[in-house]
């Protein structure tokens, strides 16, 4: 086991399944003590059962500011500090529809979870990181936030907002020992993707030069590097994980 994460504490949202669970397993294997957040209590317990390091689970709706504030205070108090935040919680909303068919309700819901949730968790985690002049924040964005996916207005726009937030936060805390970066995957085989219309998944996969989906393990490996002490001179940046689709 590498010692570079020794005694570190991490928070992962959306940890009940998919990329959040995969990153939890990866960081736990490297000794990170974890707080897993999701609204799916049963899923959190399944993830916890796969971990090898200390872990606490918290069931909450990350769009509720008071709840987020309370949970992060509990995490900081329980573990004494917070070093890592990985924001994986997200939904696609309704897809394979054109912009004039998108409902205001769906747009608001997608933004609340994908953008506002990431904003709130970072808002309340940052003061804990500032205490030690060290921290790693990783927002999971999407290639659609860079390029836009037709049929996915709400999702693409919310992930573009996440990328914008990453650029701002990275610059704001650049002199504090805290880095803030994003990861922009193309299609990664998760339950969220499996629930999308086949036509939408084909549209996205066809744009990938490698002509395949990414694997959860590939995404988890990249995420683990981004939140490691070794990734110390990169901030406000969006890492590509797109099989060649985006190269900027």
Describe the structure.
The structure is a single chain. The protein has one domain: 3-Layer(aba) Sandwich (Rossmann fold), CATH 3.40.50. The longest helix is centred in the middle third of the chain and has 29 residues. By secondary structure, it is α/β, with parallel strands linked by helices. It is 46% helix and 15% strand. Strands 3-2-1-4-5-6-7 form a seven-stranded parallel sheet, sandwiched between helices. The model has no long low-confidence stretch (mean pLDDT 94). It contains nine helices and seven strands. Helix 1 crosses helix 9.
Layout of helices and strands, plus pairs?
Blueprint: E1 9-13, H1 18-29, E2 33-38, H2 41-49, E3 55-59, H3 65-79, E4 84-87, H4 104-132, E5 135-140, H5 143-147, H6 153-172, E6 178-185, H7 191-194, H8 198-205, H9 216-226, E7 238-241
Helix pairs in contact: 1-9, 3-4, 4-6
- The CATH architecture is 3-Layer(aba) Sandwich
Helices and strands, in N-to-C order?
A: EHEHEHEHEHHEHHHE
The number of distinct structural domains comes to 1
Tell me, rounded to a whole number, the average pLDDT.
Answer: 94
The total count of strands amounts to: 7
Rough outline: globular
Question: In CATH's first tier, which class applies?
Answer: Alpha Beta
Number of helices: 9
Radius of gyration: 17 Å
Low-confidence stretches: none
* Overall helicity: 40-55%
Order of strands in the sheet with most strands: 3-2-1-4-5-6-7
How far is it from the N-terminal to the C-terminal residue, by CA? 33 Å
- Please name the fourth-level CATH homologous superfamily: NAD(P)-binding Rossmann-like Domain
CATH domain fold name: Rossmann fold
How many strands, what sense, and barrel or not for the largest sheet?
Answer: 7 strands, parallel
């Amino acid at each position: 086991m590498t010692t570079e994460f020794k005694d570190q504490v991490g928070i992962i949202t959306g940890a009940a399944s998919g990329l959040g669970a995969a990153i939890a397993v990866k960081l736990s294997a490297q000794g990170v003590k974890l707080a897993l957040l999701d609204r799916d209590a049963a899923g959190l317990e399944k993830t916890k059962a796969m971990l090898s390091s200390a872990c606490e689970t918290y069931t909450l709706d990350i769009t509720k500011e008071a709840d987020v504030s309370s949970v992060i205070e509990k995490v900081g108090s329980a573990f004494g500090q917070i070093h890592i935040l990985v924001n994986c919680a997200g939904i696609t909303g309704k897809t394979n529809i054109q912009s004039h068919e998108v409902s205001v309700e769906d747009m608001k819901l997608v933004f609340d979870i994908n953008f506002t949730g990431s904003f709130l968790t970072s808002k309340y985690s940052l003061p804990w990181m500032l205490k030690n002049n060290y921290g790693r924040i990783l927002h999971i964005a999407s290639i659609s936030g860079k390029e836009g996916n037709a049929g996915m207005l709400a999702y693409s726009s919310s992930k573009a907002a996440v990328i914008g937030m990453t650029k701002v936060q990275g610059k704001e805390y650049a002199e504090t020992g805290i880095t803030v970066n994003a990861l922009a995957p193309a299609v990664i085989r998760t339950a969220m993707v499996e629930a999308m219309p086949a036509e939408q998944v084909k549209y996205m996969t066809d744009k990938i030069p490698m002509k395949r989906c990414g694997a959860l393990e590939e995404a988890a490996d990249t995420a683990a590097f981004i939140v490691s002490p070794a990734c110390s001179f990169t901030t406000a940046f969006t890492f590509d994980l797109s099989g060649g689709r985006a190269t900027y």
